[in-house]
Amino acid sequence: MNPLIFTTILMTVLLGTMIVMMSSHWLMIWIGFEMNLLAIIPILMKKYNPRTMEASTKYFLTQATASMLLMMAIIINLMHSGQWTITKVFNPTASIIMTSALAMKLGLTPFHFWVPEVTQGISLTSGLILLTWQKLAPMSILYQISPSINLNILLTMAVLSILVGGWGGLNQTQLRKIMAYSSIAHMGWMTAVLVYNPTLTMLNMLIYIMMTLTMFMLFIHSSSTTMLSLSHTWNKTPLTTTLILITLLSMGGLPPLSGFMPKWMIIQELTKNSSIILPTLMAIMALLNLYFYMRLTYSTSLTMFPSTNNMKMKWQFETKRITLLPPLIVMSSLLLPLTPMLSILD
Amino acid sequence: MMTYIVFILSVIFVVSFVGFSSKPSPIYGGLVLIVSGGVGCGIIMNFGGSFLGLMVFLIYLGGMLVVFGYTTAMATEQYPEVWVSNTTVMGVFLLGLLMEVMLVLYVLKSEEVGVAFKFSGVGDWAIYDTGDSGVFSEEIMGVAALYSYGAWVVIVTGWSLLVGVLVVLEVTRGD
Asked: Can you give the residue ranges of the NADH:quinone oxidoreductase/Mrp antiporter transmembrane domain (chain A) (predicted)?
């Protein structure tokens, strides 16, 4: 793609999310979502093969439907409250429709079917943008309307997302689909605590974005999209292998890595609100997630996977320079002792 | 009938939307779009917005739809699909018509009964009062406000349109 046009379109994606996050008028928020959607389509379609076109079409259809539902909820809100400012949504019908629309944009169950298919059909870098940056805008709106969200619907969607994200990722060998199901499960964790303490949603979003960025950059560094090609990294760059191990265990939520922090805080917040069975179920279903991360680490880092190379390390022709990888790795694994700093996030 | 003119026009509006949403060939979609544009203009005019209605006719129908018609005429096929040529298209059209008829009956026959919305009869659509704001007409003030208080909206929508052109060109460019 022409670099100037590519930069313009990328900046428009950023601008769309910024408009969503900064606006106080519901119509501007809708405009921001549409601008975001419109501009990310050519980024998803960077390579012109039928797979990317199909993935972009699926993404466009689901997100456009969600935008339409959002517009309907905005208009019902206007009808019943007579004003356009973002506060809480005053009508229960509008609140339910808006929650469903934002769940469609995020990829929560039962609207999760597009996430693995779209993530699989596009390149790794586009998948990175899709799973991290595109989650910011809907989550910011959910944060803003959180006082008026129907708890039953959101908690149902969250728990089902954690289940589907864990269960659906079990038989996958394609790395992008694994990351997609991991994204569904993490969105479930984030929205589960939204009504109780939205600050923890933002904390989880922050740590999730750091971990997903790290994982995707490690995949891009080793140019691997399947479990098989990832398991050859011990031969190519042994250091990456260790980093993949650490980051995957952090994504699985194991202490003493930073991925444990959001899960711990969320379970604590849920139990403070006298729900015991729910966080127990959520923690048990997170084990499914941990299982396929462990399987990935087993074939990648914990064993020397058989390869056709006879030497200890392959000849390095050229190394890709991935920006910001070391700080991201550090942040996605070592942040747990900083948990008391949560008090600044309010 | 004049009190219910907005309701009648809105029914024709929805029916023409169903007409092009059932996806005949783009030429026939454009034809129905002309009808829906004209009817939409009528609806706006009944609320006192004569400027906006004429804007619809001039810019939308007279500018954008003409260009659309020319480009579609260049790219059309030998036997374009009509509403009755394809079973699917006709089925969707009839389904849309049926839903609109049921909605109209629901609005007309049941007073003050709401499922998710309260349709209080046809009262919402009848024009009793055009909105008295004195000497100034409201919609001209609205357009003026768009360029003064709403400058940010103009910037954002202008940028969206520019990026829309870039995106469409980029997507259809191929390799």
From this structure: 23-285
**Which chain A residues touch B if contact means CB-CB below 8 Å?**
1, 5, 8-9, 12, 15, 19, 28, 31-32, 34-35, 38-39, 41-42, 45, 48, 56, 76, 79, 93
Task: List chain A residues with pLDDT less than 70.
Answer: 346
pTM of the complete model: 0.88
Domain extents for chain B?
2-130, 138-174
Query: In this structure, which amino acid lies at residue A176?
Result: R
Which chain A residues have a beta carbon less than 8 Å from that of B167?
Answer: 9, 38-39, 41-42
CATH, range B2-130: 1.20.120.1200
Which helix (H) or strand (E) segment holds residue B114: the answer is strand B111-114
pLDDT digit string, tens, across residues A145-192: 999 999 999 999 999 999 999 999 999 999 999 999 999 999 999 999
Give the residue extent of every domain in chain A. Answer: 3-344
Residue type, position A173, single letter: T
CA Rg value for chain B: 20
Find out whether A282 and A185 touch, Cβ atoms under 8 Å.
Answer: no
Cα A294 to Cα A251: distance, rounded to the nearest angstrom: 10
Which residues lie closer than 8 Å to A234 by C-beta, 6 or more apart?
A: A241, A300, A301, A304, A305
Chain A hits for B163, Cβ within 8 Å: 8-9, 12, 35, 38-39
Alpha helices by DSSP H, chain A: 3-22, 26-44, 50-81, 92-106, 114-121, 124-132, 136-144, 151-168, 175-192, 198-222, 227-230, 233-236, 238-251, 260-272, 277-297, 325-333
Among the partner-chain residues A31, A38, A48, the one whose CB lies closest to the CB of B156 is A31
**Which residue type occupies A182?**
S
What is the rounded distance in angstroms from the CA atom of residue B69 to the CA atom of residue A259?
A: 56
- List C-alpha distances in Å: B39 to A279, B3, B57: 55, 16, 10
Residue B114: CB atoms within 10 A of its CB come to 10
- Looking at the partner chain, which of B156, B157, B167 has a beta carbon nearest the beta carbon of A9? B167
